[in-house]
Design brief:
The complex is a heterodimer of chains A (116) and B (115).
Chain A: E1 5-7, E2 10-13, E3 19-24, E4 31-38, E5 42-50, E6 53-57, E7 64-68, E8 74-78, E9 87-94, E10 106-107, E11 111-115
Parallel strand pairs in A: 2-11
Antiparallel strand pairs in A: 1-3, 3-8, 4-5, 4-9, 5-6, 7-8, 9-10, 9-11
Chain B: E1 3-7, E2 10-14, E3 19-26, E4 32-38, E5 44-50, E6 56-58, E7 64-68, E8 73-78, E9 87-94, E10 103-105, E11 109-114
Parallel strand pairs in B: 2-11
Antiparallel strand pairs in B: 1-3, 3-8, 4-5, 4-9, 6-7, 7-8, 9-10, 9-11
The chains are: A mainly beta (116), B mainly beta (115).
Chain lengths: 116, 115
Amino acid sequence: DSGVTQTPKHLITATGQRVTLRCSPRSGDLSVYWYQQSLDQGLQFLIQYYNGEERAKGNILERFSAQQFPDLHSELNLSSLELGDSALYFCASSPSGGGIIQETQYFGPGTRLLVL
Amino acid sequence: AQSVTQLGSHVSVSEGALVLLRCNYSSSVPPYLFWYVQYPNQGLQLLLKYTSAATLVKGINGFEAEFKKSETSFHLTKPSAHMSDAAEYFCAVGGMNTGFQKLVFGTGTRLLVSP
C-alpha cells in the first residue's frame, strides 16, 4: 500500500459526459501527479501540482483540467468524454516539488474509466 | 525529445532462471532512467533509478540495471526469477529537456514466470 488513495476505483459513463476523479496523496506529500494509461497511448504524464499550484504539464487535453485543494487532495476533471478517454488514470504523490530526480513518486491504485 | 524502447512486450522465464528485460533510450542530454513495476490491479512502484552516479544500480526485490552509454541501454536483470516477479515492467526516461518533472515511459514488458 503506497498511502495514495484514489476514488472511485471504477467509473462507467457515456460519451459527452463529465467526470471527476479524486486523489488523496500520502500524508505530508505536497506534490500530486496525474497519469493516463491506455492501450493506445501507453502510460503518459498529464499534469503535476505542487502545494496548490500547477508545476508541470504533459500531454493533457484541453477538455481535461485538474486542481489541488488546500488540504492537498487533487481532482482531475474530464469533460466532453470520448470513447478514446477510456483508460486507467493514476495519481502519484511525492514529498515536495523537487522533481523526479530527487524524489520518488508513490502511485495510487488508479481509477478505471470506461466511456460507452 | 527523449524516448525509451522496450524490446519484447512479453518475456517468459522459468522460476529460478535469469530475468533480462531490455530498455534502450534516446536522449540528447544526459538521461535519468527508471524502472517501475506494476502488479495486477495496482499502481506503479519504483524498482530503481539511474541519476548519473554509479552505472550499476541496485533496486528492490533483487533487481539491478546497468547504464551503458555506448549502447544507449538500461537493461533490467535479476539472477533468479521468482513467481512473485510476474508483473508488468516499465522503463522510463526523464531529464531537463522533457521538463524537470516529466517522465516518458516505454510501452511495458509483461514478465511471465512459470514453475
